[in-house]
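Predict the holo structure. Ligand: adenosine-5'-triphosphate.
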Amino acid sequence: MLPEVYSEKRFGINKENISPNALSIINKLKNNGFSAYLVGGCIRDLIKGLLPKDFDIVTNCQPEQIRKIFKNSRIIGRRFKLVHITFPDEVIETTTFRSGSDSSDDALKIDDDGRILRDNNWGTQEEDAFRRDFTVNAVYYDPFNKEVIDYTSGIKDLKNKSIKFIGVPETRVQEDPVRILRAIRFAAKLNFSIEEGALRAIEKHKTKLSEMPPARIYEEIIKLFLSGHAEKSYELLSKHQIFNILFPHSRNDPRVFGNFFRKTFSNTDSRYRNNKKLNPGFLFATLLWPRIFEESAIDTKLNFRKYYQSVSSVIRKQQTISAIPRRFVSFIKDVWMYQIRFNKIGKKSINFSKNIRYRASFDFLEVRESIEPKLKERIKWWKEFYESNYDKKIKMLNIYRKRREPR
Ligand code: ATP
Ligand code: MG
C-alpha cells in the first residue's frame, strides 16, 4: 500500500520547534544508511504549531545496532525493546519499526483475551504504522527530506479533530485496554472528539481497565491529570463513566464532588501553565478524598482511629488498580493526617507551621473549601498565622485562646 506523502511546506512546520538532539540522531542514523523519522505526539504538535514536549524517533535500525552507533544509549523495555538516547537535557526514545501483526512468529505473544504480551517483531514502516493505536499517532516526518508520510489518513483525522483507531476498534481495545485511557487523554489534550466506533468499543470493554498492570495505569493517570488538561480529562472520564472504574474506592458521587474536582483540576491546569511543581501525591490525595471525607466526618465529630483506618485502607485498595510510588504514599498520608491539626489551634501550631508538609497540607485545606464552605474563616486564620513573625504568632494564639475561654 502506498502512503500519502505531503511536503512539509503544506503544514508550515517550524524547525525551531524540533529538538536539535532529535535532529542529530536522525542525521546520524541516515549517515549510517538507515531511514529514520519523527513519529507520534511530536508530529501532532508540530502540525498544530505547538511546541512538542518530547520527540519519538522510529527507524529501520535494530536496537543492538542503535546501541552501537550511539555511545550515550541504552536498551530498555520488557514488553518490547527500545533504545533511550541520553543527552544532558533530555532522553530521546528511539524505536525500531515493528510489525506487531504476525502471530505465527515467536516474537509476538498474545494471551487468551487477545491481549499483546510481547511484541518484538521488527517490520516495515507500513507495518509499523498499522500497529500504532490511533490514526493521528501514525504520521511520520522526515525533517531532512522534508516529507510527511501518512498510511492511515492521520492527516485527515487531524483536520477533522477525530480520535480514531487504526483497524477494528474492538480488536484494538482488546489487544491493549490501556488504549481506552489513551483515547480519553488525546481527546482531552487536543480537544478532539472520539470517533463513534471507538466509543462503542470503549463502552463495551472499559471494565477491563481494572485488570491492567497497576504501573501502567498509574502512568496514564499521571499523564491524564498532570499535563495541563486535568479538568477536561475529568470531564471525559466522568462522561464515559470511567472515573469510577479507575477510582472505585474513592466513591465519588459527581453530584456531591463534581465541583470539588472541577475546581481543583482547573487549579492544577493553571499551575501547569505557570510551570509550577505538580506533585502526584497531591493529585492522589485529591482523587481519593471523597471516601475519606464521607467516612470520617472530619469536621463534626472526628473519630481519630476511624480516620486513620480510612486513610490507610483507601490507599491500599487503590494500589490494586494503580501503583502509587512509596514516597507519594507517605506524602498522601501526611497531608490527610495533618488536616486534623488545622482543627486545633494552640502552642503546637507554631511548630506545625514549620513542618515540611505544612505548605502542601495548607493547600489541601484550601482545596477542601469547595465542599466545606465553613472552612473559610479557618483558612484565613492559618494564612495570616503562617505569614506572621514569631511575636505576631504568639499574639494571635493569645487572642484565639481568650476568645475561647468562658467569660
Ligand atoms: P504524548 O507524548 O503527547 O503523550 P504520544 O502519542 O507521543 O503522546 P507516547 O506514549 O509517547 O504517545 O507513544 C508514542 C507513539 O507510540 C504513539 O503516538 C503511538 O503511535 C505509539 N503507541 C504508544 N502506546 C501505544 C499503545 N498502547 N498501542 C499502540 N501504539 C502505541
Ligand atoms: Mg511521545
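The two ends are 89 Å apart (CA to CA). Residues 40-41, 54, 56 surround magnesium ion (ligand 2) (CB under 6 Å).
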